[in-house]
């Protein structure tokens, strides 16, 4: 405790340089937490948008693996592993036996829901405007289990769509381009003929390509329009734990003999972009903590020089080299602890203020304000990086102070 008391006295004796070092740590920790909260916040929001729109897993074409199958047989004759190559497989478009797929999915406890979707193309005609659209035929009860469609509706309601077999749900940008109103009649052309439909609702996912091209119809109506009876559909699957989608996708592909793609594989490009932004911001902001560490190194190096005689006196009084080093290490610990505490408080307040800043984004997701992720790990990582730099900055001067020989210093000062 005596070493801690001496360290505290050394700290308050040099208030100005210590306050400057403390300020650097505070802002370094705060900026680290804030930038990580923003980048990971937008990443989490993007993931929620993706899962709420296209599900965690997509099951599409049936394949016959004619060339790409690799097996390893053990000495006992059992198969140790096998591997299917998607690139060399022979694909047949769509799911041919959807009921069997549905029954198989029910055997996996990880599966939360499965929605059979019939995809196709058509042209919407209002009489004055025409627009090509991507048709998604859905069974609305199943689809609500695998998507956030009910939450994405900004006009109309899922009840209106459910009660009207001729109902259609339009993406928000598609709706605006066609200059429609809820309840208006519209013609869908292509496929096997022309359908007369009624606009039951408008959805907004925030994904521009979906909002300006996609329209939802009832499954049976879409099947009749596209001329596909009971085949050519795909399955959108939701999971209790979406982060486990890649492992489950491998199991499903082996069991079902269909192409199975997890959301991580499907959105790999955007996930890599978010990861690069998160790492880049962490490296950039860590430079502030590095500069704070260099500042503390200078402060403590000068302090060792100025306190050489005091250190020699302490050594002559019975302080060991370890005691002397601990005095300087305790000084660093005091400044570091205060910096982490005040930096965390500043980060919390700044993160909250940023979260309420208006910001309209319409692109890969939809939001009207900054999105932040409240994660304790951000604070722990900020504290760990600050601890690393400060520890190095204080350990070197402390080691030098512990090597001071009292007899030599006393002889030089006589």
Q: Quick summary of this structure?
A:
With 414 residues, the chain is α+β, with helices and mostly antiparallel strands.
Provide a descriptive summary of the structure in words:
There is one protein chain. The chain is built from 16 helices and 15 strands. The protein has helices at residues 2-13, 15-54, 98-105, 140-146, 149-152, 158-163, 172-178, 208-211, 219-226, 245-256, 263-266, 268-306, 308-316, 321-355, 376-402, 406-413, and strands at residues 57-64, 70-73, 79-83, 90-92, 111-125, 130-138, 153-156, 167-171, 185-190, 193-203, 214-218, 234-239, 258-262, 358-362, 366-369. The longest helix has 40 residues, at 15-54. It is elongated. The relative contact order is 0.18.
Percent strand equals: 15-25%
**Helix content range of the residues, please?**
55-70%
Number of strands: 15
What does the largest sheet look like? Answer: 6 strands, mixed, barrel
Please tell me what the overall shape is.
Answer: elongated
Query: Cα distance, first to last residue?
Result: 32 Å
Point out poorly predicted stretches. 79-83
Features:
414 residues, alpha+beta, 2 domains, six-stranded mixed beta barrel, two-stranded antiparallel ribbon, 15 strands, elongated
